[in-house]
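Check the record.
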Amino acid sequence: MKAVELTGVSRLEVCSRELAPLDEHSVLLKVEAVGVCGSDLRIYRNGDPRVSFPRIMGHEIAGTIADKGKEVRGFEIGDRVALGAHIPCGVCRYCIEGQGQHCVKGWTIGYQFDGGFAEYVVLNREMMLNGSVCELEDHTPFDEACLAEPLSCVMNGLKRLSVRPGETVVVFGVGAIGGMFISLLKKMGAGKIIAVQRSEERRKLAWKLGADICIDPAQNSVTETILEHTGGYGCDVSIVTVPSNEVQNQTLTAMRKQGRVLFFAGLPKHLTTELNTNSIVYKELSLLGVHGASRLDHQDAVKWINRKFIDMSPFITHRYSLEDTEKAFAATEQKLGLKSVVLPSRKP
């Protein structure tokens, strides 16, 4: 099969690989679409302790079952499926509690196991038993279905926030994740959605996805503008989707008392932050983090896409062949559009 290997930091190579033999509990998936995630870019540029070279990255995957072991139940050759990223062990405390994204093993497709930047990927026994492998409706496009993985992470974040109808929500950063937050917040009945984004192109996309107000932080004071649009109180909820210590601190100044803050993006290891904890204490703020998604979150995301509750097509702004995977990474790094998707089994 044809694949794209990460052979070292900042080195991607198109190569030919033999298909690994299937055991009786595994599935061979023909990859139809795989999204480029920000975490893929971080591995590409900086490496990761969980990733050895050479490795096929890619965890936002949708495809068709091409073969299966004789003990695999519930799936047939030809089934169209979308995958969650995590491969839970199924027996640790977190897995038993339904929080497989925090499994003590920490297994993820495209990290310890080869992922989707290839014509085929093997889904091992643990993935088939404990991971999220969800069937797609015939009408659901593969390129949209592969985005069920990042959508499930957004849904996990919103579940933690418990946004109430009519609340004012600020979203810092309108990449694919920020855009998905805006789209879902609109459907959930959020009162006023404020997007903070430097790029004019992405501010225009924020408007289309449902933002009521867009702030260019290079031209306007973010805190003053938010206070102006909230009667001087500040926002009820803030969602930070950019890995910036400056923004993490800035959001605390724009919160109303007893507001809720969600940090979606972690900071690079070389960055540290000093939060004004007095703001947290005296405003009685709730500070939350979110990482990944559970199996149930991913199943819900696939249901929403299958039922067209959310239209994923606006998020896909660039499509690439497998041979052009490095171009897809470059587009992601340069923040072109919202989402780049690689199509290994056909020309875009």
Notes: The CA atoms of residues 196 and 220 lie 10 Å apart. The domain at 153-289 is CATH 3.40.50.720 (Rossmann fold). The first strand starts at residue 2 and ends at 8.
